Amino acid sequence: MKYLAPALCALLASTARAEEHVSDAETGIDKPVFTPTNLKAPFLEQFTDDWETRWKPSHAKKEDSKSDEDWAYVGEWSVEEPTVLPGIAGDKGLVVKNPAAHHAISAKFAQPIDNKAKDLVVQYEVKLQKGLECGGAYMKLLRNDKALASDEFSNASPYVIMFGPDKCGTTNKVHFIFKHKNPKTGEYEEKHMKSPPSIKNDKLTHLYTLIVKKDNSFELLIDNKSVKTGSLHEDFTPAVNPSAEIDDPNDKKPEDWIDEARIADPDATKPEDWDEDAPFEIVDQDAEKPDDWLEDEPLTIPDPEAEKPEDWDDEEDGDWIPPQVPNPKCEEASGCGKWEPPTIKNPAYKGKWTAPFIDNPAYKGVWKPRVIKNPDYFEDKTPSNFEPMGAIGFEIWTMQSDITFDNIYIGHSVDDAAAFRTETYDVKKPVEEAEDVKSKPKPSDKPKSPSDLVFMDDPVTYIKEKLDLFITLAKKDPIEAIKFMPEVAGGIGGVVALAIALIALIAGSGSGAAPSKEDIKKTAQQAKVKATEVKDKAADAATSGAQAVNEEVNKRTTRSTGKAE
Predict the structure, then answer these.
(1) Would you list the DSSP string of 308-342?
(2) What percent of the chain has pLDDT over 90?
(3) DSSP code of 455?
(4) Which one of 35, 76, 83, 202 has the fewest beta carbons within 10 angstroms of its own beta carbon?
C-alpha cells in the first residue's frame, strides 16, 4: 500500500503560502510564516487562537484512584510555539507542560466519525522538545456513547483506537490498539498490533500516520515512510476471530491411559561381574617420583624482601610475620613437598547398574482431548468497521515536559491527509533539520541527559544525576523506577559508599600526610553512615511512591484500566 501524492491544488496552495517568510535572527534561516489550511476534514486541528472552544482539559481522578495528589490529572496544557527548533513562524501546537504528572485533555468532534465501508486515516505531528526517556505521546479516539457526553475524560473513558509513540525502560514502540466488540457477549477486548515499530526519539517534528482500509488492511507510516503493513485479521493479538474448534474442556484422560513411550526392561538383570562399588579413580601404580622432586622444600617461604613497617607496634599489633611467597626452587624443579602418585581413571569402574530401556508394548500415544466446535465462535469479516468515534483525547504520563502535538487529521481521505502533510510537515521539516545542524554543539560542549552519561567521563556528576533521576522516579512509581534504572536500584548503597569513602580519604590526605589507621577507621564509619542515609533516602522515596500508588502495580498503563465494558 503506498501513500498517494497530494493533489495538484494542494501543491499550488502550499506554494502560495510559502511566499511569506521571515528570517530567524539567531540562525539566519529563512522561515515560512504559519497560515491556516483551507482543507476540510471530519476533524482537522492546527491549534489556532480559538482552540479553547474545542479542547477541554480534564481534572478527573484516574479510575480506582484513592490519592488526589498523585493520581489526579494535574498536568497543565498550553498552546504555544515550540522553543526548540521551530520550523514555521507563528505555528503553535498543544504542549505538555509538566514532567512527572498525569495529563488529560480531549476535544469532541462536530459530528461522530463513522468509517463503516470507508477508509480511516489518522495523522498527527509529535515533537519531543526534550526527548523522551519515560512517557507516552499517543492519542485515543473515544467511543461515541452516553459516557462521552456526561463524564469527564479519564483513563476509564471507552476508546476505539489508541495510536502513537510510547517509551519507558524496555518499552519503545508505536502503539496501534483497537477495541473490538464480541458480537456474542457484547464485551470489548483490546487488540494489539504485533511487532510494533520503534518511535523517533529526537527533537525534530515527526509525523505519525495510520491508514486503515475498508478491506481490513492497514499501514503505519512515520515521516511519510511506511514502517508497518498488515491485516486486522492476522497481525493483532489476541486474534479478532476465535478458533472454530477447541479442545473439549470436559474431556479427561482415562486413568488406564499409558503415555510412556519407553520403559526400563523388566526382564533385564545385573551381570554377576558388575561391581557397583568400584571407585571412579585409582592410584597409578606405575607412576614414579621425578628425579628432581624436592621433598624437603616447602611450597612457600617468607618473603626475603619484606620489611617490617615502621609504625608496627608489637604490643598492639602482635608479632610481625613477613608474608609468604612461592618458593623459587619449586619453579625450577618438578615439584616440592611430599610426593604422592597421581590418580587415574579406574578401568574396572562401571557405576550403578540400571536396566536398559525398551519400547513400551502398552504405549497408547500422547493423549489429547477431543476437539469440539467452539461454542463462542464468531466470524467478523469487517473488523475495520470500527464503532463511531465522538472525540479525540490525550491521556498520558511522562517524565519529560514540552511534548508538542500539532496538525491533527482524522478522516477518510488518504489524498487529503497527504495534502495536509505537504502544507505543514513537509514545509517545516527542512527548516528544522537546517536549524538542528546549525545549533548542534561541539562534542565537548554537548550537554548530556542522565541516560547518556558515562561514569569515567565524570564520576561525581554520573552518580549525582543517576541518583536524582532514580529518586524522582521512585517517588512517583517505585516499580517503574526499578525497571527503568535497575543498576541504581541494585547498587546504590555500594556505589555511593565507595564514592564517599574515596572522596573522604582524598580530602583527608590533602595536607600531604598519609591518613592514620584511626583516620581510616573513622572515615570508613562515616562513609558507611552516609551510604546508609542515601540508601534510606532512595528506599523512603520508593516506599512513599508505593503508598501513593496503593494497589496499582504500574501507573503508566498504555491502555484503559477502567471498569469492564
Answers:
(1) --TT--HHHH-S--PPEEE-HHHHHSS-BSS--PP
(2) 63
(3) T
(4) 83
Nearest to 240 by CA among 379, 111, 133, 347: 379
Contacts of 139 (CB under 8 A, 6+ apart): 122, 124, 162, 163, 164, 392, 393, 394, 405, 408
C-alpha cell of 522?
A: 573513622
In degrees and rounded to multiples of 5, residue 386 shows phi and psi of -65, 160
Euclidean distance between the first and final Cα of the chain, in Å? Answer: 34
Contacts of 276-279 with CB under 8 Å at 24 or more apart are 276/350, 276/351, 276/352, 276/353, 278/346, 278/348, 278/349, 278/350, 279/346, 279/349
Contact between residue 275 and residue 348 where contact means Cβ atoms under 8 Å apart: yes
Name, in order, each residue with C-beta under 8 angstroms of 552's C-beta and a sequence gap of 6 or more: 64, 65
Other CB atoms closer than 10 Å to residue 153's CB: what's the count? 26
Residue length, the chain? 565
Give the whole-angstrom CA distance, residue 37 versus residue 258: 75
Secondary structure (DSSP) of 357-383: EEE-TT------PPEEE-TT----S-T
Share the mean pLDDT of the chain: 82
Residues in CB range of 397: below 8 A, 6 or more apart: 100, 101, 102, 103, 135, 136, 555, 556
Reply yes or no on whether the pLDDT at 9 is more than 60: no
Positive or negative: CA dihedral 436, 439, 444, 449: negative
Bridge partner list, 133: none
Residues 358-386: pLDDT tens digits? 999 999 999 999 999 999 999 999 999 99
Q: Tell me the percentage of the chain whose pLDDT exceeds 70.
A: 73
Show Cβ contacts of residue 129 under 8 Å, excluding neighbours closer than 6 positions.
82, 83, 84, 85, 203, 402, 403, 404
Alpha-carbon distance of 555 to 334, in angstroms, equals 68
Alpha-carbon gap, residue 220 to 197, rounded angstroms = 9
Query: 58: buried, middle or exposed (CB in 10 Å: 19+, 13-18, 0-12)?
Result: buried
- Residue 372's alpha-carbon distances to 354, 365, 376, 403, 547, in angstroms, are 44, 20, 11, 52, 48
186: left (phi over 0), alpha (psi -120 to 50) or beta: left
Main-chain dihedrals φ then ψ at residue 496, nearest 5 degrees: -65, -40
pLDDT of residue 497: 46
Output phi, psi for 314, to 5 deg: -60, -35
The letter for the amino acid at 474 is A
pLDDT range class, residue 137, cuts 50, 70, 90: very high
| pTM tops 0.90, yes or no | no
Rounded CA-CA distance 186/145 in Å is 15
Q: Which residue has the cell 512527572?
A: 100
Identity at 383, one-letter amino acid code = P
User: For 201-233, what is each residue's pLDDT tens digit?
Assistant: 999 999 999 999 999 999 999 999 999 999 999
Report the helix count and the strand count for the chain, using DSSP H and E: 11, 27
